[in-house]
């Protein structure tokens, strides 16, 4: 690459210096030519006969370079080969060097576009997170002002759903915008979200075996987990009863799929459907989420607590 005061080497093989001054630069001459420059014997060419590379040790005697041309038509350097003895390339070698130089520029432009896209994605992520925080604050304010119990339940449900979506967004952005999320880190995100809103007397544990989920699967799973936890807190641990809620996601034995288990050790359900709230909306959303997973949802209740299972395929 040739700039105002030096030439420097983005990549090199068999040539030690990282950069040289322009008085040692053959490339600074080459970029003034049309596309390709070949000097069979540098000692016999007036442009290079006094070049420090030629008179140095080891003495460079041969040079061939194909220009690296930016999209705006400006040559910025060369892809070149050197030798310590005079030589002449054949037509195939000259064509190959020029083809490789165009490939180098394609790679440089691709890296540039990737950097730009990464910067745009980071800015988008920042703006979305700010929007999430603003909406979450508005939901909390609205919940505090509303007196109607049913309306409070609905707002709380919306807030939980919104939190699950925010966790999913964070995980997706952490994966570079891919359409898949890592199970372990996603459950960790959910655990942080749920633990932050849980009362002091309820402890939440989330664990997952390593794997990947599609974004739509992760969204549905987040809904089920959020609703189970919220309604266990509401129904199973009333009157400050201490307890635990455990969430696990693991591979099904002998099957290509997953098993989600949500359980608590409370006794406040009193036969209510796990995840149900006073309006029945939570139960409906959990059933819908299980359908989105193409999964099978089952529940079990006992004096020792509630258990919910969802089996679904990859």
From TrEMBL:
Keywords noted in UniProt: Kinase, Transferase
InterPro entries linked to this entry: GAF, GAF-like_dom_sf, HATPase_C_sf, HATPase_dom, Sig_transdc_His_kin_sub2_dim/P
Domain Histidine kinase/HSP90-like ATPase, first and last residues per copy: 219-302
Residue intervals of the GAF domain: 3-108
Keyword Plastid: no
Any one GO molecular function term: kinase activity
The keyword Transmembrane helix is assigned to this record: no
Domain Signal transduction histidine kinase subgroup 2 dimerisation and phosphoacceptor, residue spans: 123-195
Name of this protein: Histidine kinase dimerization/phosphoacceptor domain -containing protein
Species annotation: Sulfitobacter faviae
